[in-house]
Each structure stands twice: as structure tokens, then as C-alpha cells.
Amino acid sequence: MRNALRACTRPEPWKRGPVLTALALLLGLLLLLHAKIPDYAGLGSLLDNVLPWLGVFIPVLLAAALWRRSLSAVTALLLPAVAWTTVFGGLLPDKSHPGGDLTAATHNVGTADPAPTARTLAASGADLLALEELTPQATPLYEKTLARMYPHHVIRGTVGLWSKFPLSATHPIDIMNYGPLAATKPAAANLPENRALHTTVTTPDGPLAVYVAHLGSVRPMPRKGFWTTSRNIGAAALTNAITADRSPRLLLLADLNGTWDDRAFTALRTHLHSTQQTSGTGFGFTWPAASPVARIDQILYRGLDANRSWTLPKTGSDHLPVAATLTW
Q: Whose CA is closest to 283, among 109, 49, 117, 26?
């Protein structure tokens, strides 16, 4: 005991590992202040999306600090450890609870085989099923396979909603040409215009406003970093539409092409809640399906309570489907 106390009071352990100490402090600051880092060439947005994975560096730095017997580095690691736990620790426990009036699911189907994918999704028991990245070739097969379980459906461009309840007041949402950023889209990056819709679902408990959206992709561009313009335009357009919507109960089923921590959704976070954060277990990563590292597919809500949030079995898509049960 005396030897341990003597070792701690000596100056040498506090002077060892200055680089490790600096890295630990930098890691903590990145976790705490990531939103303040300028989004130069999309790198700030990229940092937002990989933020949970920064926690991997904590045990690595701790092992190095112990090997170097650096008390300063071990002490500095308290900052990122506390920061990571504060930001993400609440996601780890199981927050689900029994009950629920409505189950919703959403899936970017990509190139998945329509018939088996539709059967997998229908087996979830979802009352509402949103599909993104529909193609003219695949859409008729989804319509045919889902027709018996879902008597009502609407499609606008590459997104659609299948429902057990009647739908009305359906219209597309222009998420590709909104705000001043729209003029900065490179011509080579043009995407299908109809990538979002709004509809009203007449449930047994009353009307529910539902939005389905597929925001633009985030892509690496040669000598320009990460291109996020289309995604950011879509985020602003959705925020504008949802802010203007006075419906007391609202769902957004979407492939956001960004995690809920991304700065592109700062404004949207003031209006909606994530089912995964309020009623899920863990991070609920959805992409890429083979080995998910990020949750870019979301079920977001207001005016309801979330009971449970989970991912569905893998299909042929590069995304995992997600589902949630909510209470009126």
C-alpha cells in the first residue's frame, strides 16, 4: 500500500505519456463538442455519424496508458468515458414495455427480391408499412404480394405506404428542390424528384399524419470530401413540412441517410422523437445490413408513446428493416 501511494505521489507517473494524455482529452472534446466542429467538406457530418464508435478508442487508450504507467493519461480518460456514457449510455438498456395500439415498419428495399421481402415485412404484423427506393419493375410485385394483408396503399415516385386502414389526402413532398442549397446540386447527382409523401391514416383511434421519405445519399466526391447537399436539402424540406403540420399525432418513416445525431437533423429533433431512443435496446444499427455500423433508417413520432422498437430480419437489401409499436 505504501509503495502504491509513493508511486502515485512521485512526479514521474504524471509526466509519462503526454501524447496519450493529449489524445484522451481530444477524444473527450470530440464527443462533447462534435456539433461545433465546422462541417468542412462534409467531415463534420461524418463525425456525427460515427460518434458512437469513438468509444472504441477508450479501452485502447486505457491499455496504452496502463502499459506506459501514465497516471495523467488514465486520469484524462475520465473525460471521454463520462462523455460517452452521458451521450450513449442511455441507449444500451432495454426500454421496451408491453402494449401498443399501432405497429409501423419501414424498409429501404433496394435491390431485394420483392416477393420474399414483402412476405418478411408482412410477417412483422405491421399495421403501416413504408417502403423506400421502389423501382417501376419491383413495385407491381410488392403491390401483388402485399394486397391481401394491406387493402390500402399509396405510392409517390420511389416511396410508398401500405396500410390496414384507409388513407386520404395523399400528396408528394418535394425534398429535392428546397431552399438555397438546391441551386448547389451538381447535375451529375440528380436523383428522382418524388422521394417523399404525406398521407393521413384513418385509424380506429383517429387520424394520424404519416410521412414517408428517402433523403439523398451521402457520397464521397473526388477532391471535395463528402457530398451531403441532397441529404441536407431533404432534411430542411421535411423539417419545414412537419413544422407546418398541425396534426396532433404524426409519424415519419424514413431512410434519412444519416444518423439521428447528424447535425442535418438538429431542427427536426426539436419536433420529433426516435422510437429507438425512447423504447429500443442498444443502437439498432441498420446499415450496411451485412454488418451494420449506423442507424440511418428511422421511425420518428410526436403525439404518441413508443412501446417498443426493433430491427426486422435481413432481406436482400443493404438496409435492415425497422419496426416500432406505439400507443395512441
A: 49
The reported pTM is 0.91
Measuring CA to CA, which residue among 220, 198, 222, 218 is closest to residue 210?
A: 198
How does pLDDT run along the chain (328 residues), one tens digit per residue?
555 545 545 557 687 889 999 999 999 999 999 999 999 889 999 999 999 999 999 999 999 999 999 999 999 999 999 999 999 999 999 999 999 999 999 999 999 999 999 999 999 999 999 999 999 999 999 999 999 999 999 999 999 999 999 999 999 999 988 766 555 555 445 555 689 999 999 999 999 999 999 999 988 877 667 889 999 999 999 999 999 999 999 999 999 999 999 999 999 999 999 999 999 999 999 999 999 999 999 999 999 999 999 999 999 999 999 999 999 9
Grid cell in block for residue 317: 437489401
Q: Give the H/E segment covering residue 196.
A: strand 196-203
3-state DSSP of 225-282: EEECHHHHHHHHHHHHHHHHCCCCCEEEEEECCCCCCCHHHHHHHCCCEEHHHHHCCC
- Domains of the chain: which residue ranges? 2-91, 102-327
* Class of the CATH-defined domain 102-327: alpha beta
